[in-house]
Amino acid sequence: MAPGLSVREMREDEKPLVLEMLKAGVKDTENRVALHALTRPPALLLLAAASSGLRFVLASFALALLLPVFLAVAAVKLGLRSRWGSLPPPGGLGGPWVAVRGSGDVCGVLALEPGTNAGDGARVTRLSVSRWHRRRGVGRRLLAFAEARARAWAGGMGEPRARLVVPVAVAAWGVSGMLEGCGYQADGGWGCMGYLLVREFSKDL
């Protein structure tokens, strides 16, 4: 674990800083996710069809070619920002929480929510580390805290098992590697047109 690092509930005056951290985290991956999504064969076919149709309406060939791509990239980015670029309301597991250095610098944020059905365990809804504090054990410290909260919540609710689910964008290879190193296994996800955009990692605690 990272020395001199603690996790506590976010204070109200820290909310603007945490929001900026979440938005910066989304920006770091959104371009790669958009590239991954729009280079899948079905997406390429749809973009080609849209471009062909626009060539009959627009006088500019370049505009007909670029406009569908621009709109598709914008849609992917807006979707990611609306999903992960904001703070969720406090849920059944409390929070949001922040990781704080001994100097008082907020360097990470975590939010959790209960699963939809009994036995689903807890889900990480936000997990972001400031770019200035990455690769220093902050993500692992937040993950360990999330696991402890999930265990305590499962025990208090009489859940049949303690389990934690962490969704990760397909382009976030560093996070996927960290989770696999901590014993998590890829277990489904969600996407578009049969292609995964977000993988879900889970672990029985």
From TrEMBL:
Q: Which family does it belong to?
A: Belongs to the camello family.
Keyword Transmembrane helix listed: yes
The residue range of the signal peptide is none
This protein's record includes keyword Thylakoid: no
N-acetyltransferase domain: from which residue to which, for each copy? 5-205
Cite a single Pfam family from the UniProt record.
Answer: Acetyltransf_1
Name of this chain's protein: Probable N-acetyltransferase 14
Which regions form coiled coils?
none
Highest taxon of the lineage: Eukaryota
Q: What is known about what this protein does?
A: Probable acetyltransferase.
* Keywords associated with the record: Acyltransferase, Membrane, Transferase, Transmembrane, Transmembrane helix
Q: InterPro entries attached here?
A: Acyl_CoA_acyltransferase, GNAT_dom, NAT_camello-type
Membrane-traversing stretches: 54-76
Instruction: List where in the cell it is found.
Output: Membrane
